[in-house]
Sequence to fold (401 residues):
Amino acid sequence: MLFDRKRHELLTTTSWNKIIVQKAITSIIDDVEQSLLPNACWPTHPLDAESYSRIGPKWSAYAGAAGTIHALQILKYYGYKTNDLSHLLATVHSSFLKSPDVSVEPGLQIGEIGILMPLILAEPDNQYVLEHLLKCMEETIDLPLYEITSGQSGMMHVALALYRKTGNICWKNMFVKGARSLMDNWQQDTETGEWLWQSQVFGLKRHYYGACHGITGNANILLQGADLLSDSCIEAIIERTIATLNISAKRENGLINWTLCTKPNIDKLLVQWCHGAAGIVTAMARTPKNNSPHSKLLDNLLEKTGELVWQAGPLVKGANICHGTSGNGYAFLYLYKRWGDLIWLERARKFAIHAIEQCQKDRLRYGQGRHTLWTGDAGLAIYLHHCLHPNEAAIPGLDLF
Fold:
């Protein structure tokens, strides 16, 4: 089997309904706003408390206040009636420095960059924030990480987004520095022919494949900034990544998935955004299309991988983006944007209805909402909006700021 059946559940029989989806988005926004605590954070959900060794408020972009506030920024931009809580981000940042979620670090998902990004979006002329954000970005360059959570590629998503928004050359320079670090540390396995980064995220040395810590996540941001890199560099990125995916793919009955990582080999086959098929689809579906053999091979890999995500079904872990039903649903939205085939949009919308039901059940089970961007309801609300408006689909906090 290319996936663990115990990690998935049967898809709901409830049909797609715009009114249900719109009400769910409004309900999530209302719950987030009503649950805000006086100290500029939200009650920690029991499932998020399990993921952290330190007990206390959560501040980061991944599962803390910064990500929730950023989600509200995005929803407000999309036209939803919601309070702008950006004024709380300075407090969130100082609270993080005093009592960090994990440790004080510069990175995107669990570090300062993920807090400072929504702050600079709200206060673009704040020179102190700009300089501090640049300092944090610079600190990621030489880290032996090469991934999104804490490393260069997460920083590069922010740098590229700010360059696109402002045209300020400082952000372009940071993106190019990150790209140089990635390219200089990309190594080929002489035995398998695979091109991989050795990431030491969380202290472990591993060669990952997925969207969060691996080759596809890095290729994604490099290719998004293709206009800032040389043509030969772009060709190398595409060729190395697609060749590596083709070599390492696990195939069965016309479906494809990848193990978590190699060196040391871990045979776990996940179907999530962070690890496995769903994230590999979202990371690679934006790769430029042409008539080359590599492009045709990628389309074949994406189709079979997307089909695996569908056959595996929604995730037992809940409605969230990182390792839940919304993240897997984004794989379908990205394939719809790539090919325009309505079957992928229909599948994304079926996952959306299922995710709404998961969210509602979990509220009853735990007696509270899960007020986070990557692991909870705030991210779900944005996914639901994208199912209503699929041409806008982009994973928040990464491909969308």
In short: The mean pLDDT is 96. Strands lie at 187-188, 195-196, 207-208, 250-252, 255-257, 261-262.
